[in-house]
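Structure first, sequence second, as always.
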């Protein structure tokens, strides 16, 4: 692959990973906002109950909870409409931490607390600090996690230093809180690895059908060890005159042009529900009906061949000096689908006489003066010959009886 194309693929994958992480972070931000908006009404009710109780804290110190309710509902609605700002993963936890600080500080400032009450309030601060830290993990960014860990630690230390605790106890609990931050970091990394794994899975669909990749994830040993027999259609193409054209060209130029041609042909195969089994230099082996089942595999192969002829002409029209001509052989029959090789190098492929016959039909397009040869077995699978013309009987090496072959008209 030329350097610019490799860089383009690398940039595409990096952008895919980043966009997936951003989508997940936005989803998690909405989740956190939904939890916050669900909790705040209950906290407002608690504020009213305590404010009406004898000796309760004055109403002005209850107001931040009601403002927090309005903020929570407003933020949730904004996020649900799709709005998002990249500074939110830092600003939102800062607002959360500020609210917790103000609310618990009011209890510390206005009450003469017994030891048990003091411990309970400090426990509330510890729990709140842990929640603030953990929200950073759901935002999937290191900057957010660092910010939430620092805010959670600050929350704890603010109240711990006002409590009757030994300095050693404070240090121990602060270290434990940092451990929560470490666990949150591990969770973030795990999610990022899962996202990269999913992007890698999507990348594999460039080479293998999605159903095969799903099967690989579910039971990889079965995929490696269990071959199966299917009836399918094989299409083999070859670029005519490519070797002569490439003789006086730079290798990178040759590879770049070959990528254009083979990429266009491979796209056509995928559009018609086929699978590119392998590229063989300027040749390609494609299968319709394996490893994914396809009812009209022969018809899709013929339709793909028609589009390949058009694609070759378009490349010639758009590329100065290009004279792309292709030969295509199509044959339907039994195939064995499975893994070939052992040790560190294995290849998922199709084997059988069907492949050999399609290859020989492709080679015979030169002598028959056509660009496409289709076996009568494929015509029988289609059940019609509209848009096709009979070439006649041909002798195929390895077969006892001659075979009637057809070609595309036009």
């Amino acid at each position: 692959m030329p350097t610019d194309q490799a860089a383009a693929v690398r940039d595409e994958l990096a952008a895919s990973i980043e966009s997936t992480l951003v989508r997940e972070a936005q989803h998690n931000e909405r989740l956190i906002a939904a939890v916050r908006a669900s909790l705040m009404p209950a906290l407002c009710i608690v504020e009213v109950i305590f404010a009406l109780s004898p000796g309760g804290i004055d109403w002005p110190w209850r107001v931040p909870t009601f403002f927090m309710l309005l903020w929570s509902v407003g933020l949730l609605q904004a996020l649900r409409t799709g709005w998002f700002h990249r500074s939110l993963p830092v600003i939102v936890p800062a607002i959360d931490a500020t609210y917790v600080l103000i609310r618990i500080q009011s209890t510390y400032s206005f009450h003469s607390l017994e030891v048990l009450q003091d411990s309970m309030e400090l426990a509330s601060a510890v729990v709140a600090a842990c929640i603030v830290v953990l929200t950073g993990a759901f935002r999937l960014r290191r900057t957010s996690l660092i910010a939430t860990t620092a805010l959670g630690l600050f929350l704890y230390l603010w109240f711990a230093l006002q409590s009757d605790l030994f300095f050693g106890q404070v240090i121990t609990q602060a270290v434990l809180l940092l451990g929560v931050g470490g666990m949150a970091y591990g969770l973030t990394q795990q999610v990022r690895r899962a996202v990269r794994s999913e992007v890698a899975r999507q990348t594999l669909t460039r080479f293998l059908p999605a159903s095969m990749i799903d099967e690989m994830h579910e039971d990889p040993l079965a995929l490696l060890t269990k071959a199966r027999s299917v009836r399918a259609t094989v299409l083999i193409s070859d670029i005519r005159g490519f070797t002569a054209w490439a003789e006086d060209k730079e290798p990178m130029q040759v590879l770049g042009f070959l990528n254009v041609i083979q990429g266009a042909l491979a796209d056509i195969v995928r559009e018609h529900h086929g699978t590119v089994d392998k590229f063989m230099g300027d040749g390609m082996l494609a299968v319709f009906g394996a490893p994914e089942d396809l009812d009209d595999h022969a018809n899709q192969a013929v339709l793909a061949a028609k589009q390949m002829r058009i694609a070759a002409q378009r490349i010639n029209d758009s590329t100065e000096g290009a004279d792309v001509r292709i030969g295509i052989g199509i044959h339907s029959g039994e195939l064995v689908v499975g893994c070939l090789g052992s040790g560190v190098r294995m290849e998922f492929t199709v084997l059988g006489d069907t492949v050999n016959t399609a290859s020989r039909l492709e080679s015979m397009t030169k002598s028959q003066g056509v660009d496409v040869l289709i076996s009568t077995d494929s015509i029988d699978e289609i059940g019609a010959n509209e848009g096709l013309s009979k070439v006649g009987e041909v002798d195929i090496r390895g077969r006892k009886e001659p075979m009637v072959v057809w070609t595309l008209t036009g």
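Margin note: The CA atoms of residues 257 and 263 lie 10 Å apart.
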